[in-house]
Amino acid sequence: MITAANLSQNYLAFIISLIIASYLSITKDSKFSILNSQFSIIIMKLDKVKGYALAAIAAAAYGTNPAFAVPLYEHGMNPVSVLLFRYLMGIPVLALLMAFRGRSFLLHKKEIVPTMILGVLMALSSLTLFESYNYMNSGVASTLLFVYPVMVAVIMIVFFHEKFNISTVICLVVMGAGLMLLMNPQGENSISGYGCLLVMISALTYALYIVIVNVSKSVCGIPTTKLLFYVLGWGSLMFIAMICFGGHMTLPEKGWGWMHLLALAVIPTVISLGCTTRAIQLIGSTPTAILGALEPVSAVILSVLVLGQVITGQDIVGGVLIVIATTIVICAEPIDKTILRIRKMFPKGKINKD
After folding, report:
1. How far apart are CA 45 and CA 272, in angstroms?
2. pLDDT band at 8 (very low <50, low <70, confident <90, very high)
3. Mean pLDDT over residues 330-354, rounded?
4. Is residue 265 part of a domain?
5. Number of domains into which the chain is organized
6. Are 293 and 326 in contact, with CB atoms under 8 Å apart?
7. Considering the domain boundaries, does residue 92 fall inside one?
8. Cα(first)–Cα(last) distance of the chain, in Å?
9. N or C: which end of the chain has fewer CB within 10 A?
10. Mean pLDDT of the chain
């Protein structure tokens, strides 16, 4: 069992480093904005690197969800209560960041409905994922969640005519192979049908969240911290309504439980969602979603270092495949150019009728 002492020893440095990284990164105010226009290409490249880094941080942070949530379930808390405290404790953190940066809390009329939709989608995604932990192994659930990059890619291609590059196809195939190995549906890790359905709903709602952040003009103009402030606010209202209409609220039985709730509010909520939102704005929804497949890798690492679980050779191979897939995303442009050059070396010949 994870004690307060173990929690502080294993996560204090991790929390501090992620808070510093997210604070320096998710702000829209770029320190390069004073440079002359001839350096715009360099700035764009740096923004891409920044976007990839933020997406990776977001995935690693989101992978801590089961490590903090499952022990709370074991001590009597239900998913709705855990998520309500997670969201409510994240709101003051975002409010302090907004105040420190001089951000306005004013929300324009055209921004109310989009932020409300995003808040509901994020709350539904969190609730169905956390509820699935009661029906299946949390590591398997977290791994299955990452079918959402495929959902994002399909939505962007079908509804928004985003180009489906060859590198994206290769990446999704490699990533799928890695995820299948990490799932390892045998013995105690057998997959529950209802639990699987909950995870699929979580993946779909999260995919829709990513797509809306990417394509909505109203949302694109909202600073990252302000957007997350209202997303968590609307989500909190949804959880409060659920408790008022038939649910019940439970509290942590011990002091370390509050530390878990605080960690949930900071790491997989403020940091992960903030980095995800900013990464989408910098590199787009599809690369951000695919880089999110690093989450199962972070989940495996945490299970070994913190929970004392044993990692198998199959887990290692699966993790390596996912790392390869994310590397393909980062190197997508040169890979596509190389494939195009190879294809041009073998043009379709025309039949000579002479």
Report:
1. 23
2. very low
3. 57
4. yes
5. 1
6. yes
7. yes
8. 81
9. C
10. 76
